[in-house]
Design goal:
GNAT_dom, 10 helices, nine-stranded mixed β-sheet, about 375 residues, single chain, 3 domains, Aminopeptidase, Alpha-Beta Plaits, 16 strands
Length: about 375
């Protein structure tokens, strides 16, 4: 029997009467619950109280909701809480802004932290399309630097949270972060330059329509062994109908590494049935293997996965393969491995402090030496 306490984040509406919140906390204490944090969030017409509660073993979320209702309150939302995330909002916002200022590709992750969102994904710019606005209560909202007056080429960040609507305060925090980063010139993802272990310069960027020919040429230069490791089949060439899907997978994302006019590596994130897990795959041209390209690509994908709310990446490898485990180790990402259906299931944690490995990542706008 598991005796590990569960930690929950509750948002509740209480009657505006003296002692209402105290009565709720006392009732929770009688059920062996420990209130770890409490914050008050202003909303139109009153406030929401947010409690982080460590529940006794065997106590269900429904029991916590019943405790709130017994004191005349209403539970607006409840979700599992991570003790690692217990930090006051101003500190979290400052840390997130600092992260995004250092690395514009971490804007999505910073926005997720500041807004307490489940996920943040970047939507490519669509000429003629304005940021979507939704009436309250908000569970999904789009942000662009500059707000509604933003240029059409500016990307939008779609922020989602299922367990509780965003409050106006949280929406204001999100827009303030985007505006701050825009003023500093760091409000959107940008290609990053990679200097490999042996001094060659590449660019990491998102895959896009129009890369089909370069992607086909990448596959034609890969050995049969490399292709078999990636696709677990003996294909020599990739059917043309696959190329567009590899570049723009449904609900997933693709990143590529490019040297001059050649795409030399490809990485993908594909959602799974679990909201906390995505499947990851890498393909690195033989000539570029062992030079830090896969490490940088996996680190970039892990950052995108964290912003999207994934805590784990899963890769499926042949039993004798150790490449993904070694690549994750160089990227500073913990792994666990088990056999499943004749393959190795390599689980890569996204919650560590990934580094780029021996290959150094820099802003593409900065000058890099070519090898």
């Amino acid at each position: 029997m598991d005796t590990t306490p569960n930690t929950w984040r509750l948002r509740v509406e209480l009657d505006d009467s003296p002692g209402a919140l105290a009565r709720v906390t006392i009732r929770l204490a009688h059920q062996d619950c420990n209130v770890l944090a409490l914050s008050v969030i202003p909303v139109p017409g009153g406030v929401l109280d947010e409690l982080v509660v460590q529940a006794a073993p065997g106590l269900l979320p429904a029991d916590l909701v019943d405790a709130v209702r017994a004191e005349g309150g209403r539970c607006v939302g409840i979700t599992a809480a991570d003790l690692r995330d217990l930090v006051d909002a101003p500190t979290a916002a400052l840390r997130a802004a600092a992260l995004a200022l250092r690395d514009p590709n971490a804007v999505g992750e910073a926005l997720r932290v500041v807004m307490g969102a489940d996920s943040v994904v970047v939507k490519p710019a669509e000429p003629g399309a304005a940021p979507e606005t939704r009436p309250a209560p908000h569970r999904e909202v789009d942000f662009r630097a500059g707000g509604p007056a933003a240029p059409e080429e500016a990307p939008a960040y779609t922020v989602k949270r299922g367990w509780s609507p965003f409050t106006q305060v949280e929406l204001a925090r999100g827009q303030a972060l985007i505006d701050l980063l825009a003023a500093a010139g760091a409000a959107e993802p940008r290609p990053t330059a990679l200097l490999t272990d042996d001094g060659m310069a590449l660019v990491l960027r998102a895959g896009r329509a129009g890369d089909e020919e370069a992607l086909a040429e990448l596959h034609s230069r890969c050995s049969m062994g490399t292709l078999f490791s990636r696709y677990h089949s003996g294909l020599r060439t990739v059917p043309r109908r696959w190329l567009h899907r590899l570049l723009t997978p449904p609900r997933g994302s693709t990143a590529v590494a490019q040297c001059a006019d050649r795409v030399v590596a490809l990485g993908q994130l594909i959602p799974t049935s679990s909201p906390d897990c995505a499947e990851v795959s890498l393909l690195v041209e033989d000539e570029w293997q062992g030079r830090g390209v896969g490490t940088a690509l996996l680190g970039s994908l892990a950052g995108a996965a964290r912003a999207a709310g994934y805590r784990e990446l899963v890769g499926w490898c042949l039993p004798a393969e150790t490449g993904l485990v070694r690549t994750a180790a160089r990227a500073g990402l913990p792994t666990s491995v088990r056999r499943e259906d004749g393959l190795l299931r390599v689980a890569v944690a996204t919650g560590g402090s990934p580094v780029t490995g021996p290959g150094r990542l820099e802003s593409a706008s900065r000058q890099v030496a070519s090898g």
